[in-house]
Amino acid sequence: MANIFVTGIGTDVGKTVVSAILVEALQADYFKPVQAGDLDYSDTHKVQELISNEVSQFHPNSYALQTPMSPHGAAEIDNISIDIDNIQLPETKNHLVIEGAGGLLVPLNDHQTIADLILPDYKVIVVSRHYLGSINHSLLSLNFLKNRQLDTAVIFNGPETSSTENIIQKMTDFPIIGRLDEEQSLDKQTIRRYAEMFSDKLMAFINS
Q: How confident is the model over 41-52, as pLDDT tens digits?
């Protein structure tokens, strides 16, 4: 079974929606190690609300912080320090989708970032949302992962922008799982539709 780490080129790029699609496509478990803010309606709640299968299990955060900001700052407000040794993968015999917080270099403490949660055997999926400057942010993130020799694929988010998608693929040579359009609404039916669309390429990536 695979551990699939979902990260993004920044914050608010669609990691949680993509995580829900992956959970649905694989009937995988879900784990968000660090949640900062929105504890009453967290990313775990959102993913759970969007999936249809009855197999997936949802595992508690290792750190649930009160303030919606970078984890290191939110932890300081809560008068704690994040220790990544306390972030243990939940025990499961299922595929596990792990959602990061923000981008790869978001600090967890004075020395470690989200990227330090990604182990060498993980499959990494980067969510790249289309906006002015997203090519630079995408290439920085993807080349960072390439330098760490991590097995990586991309999911785009936003209206089709062929020139952007093509240059990112040409300059990184990472596989593309697919792209999310701008949707009027996000519900279980939408998530199921994308899960079916992405399923073949997703399984090929996981089994590569």
A: 999 999 999 999
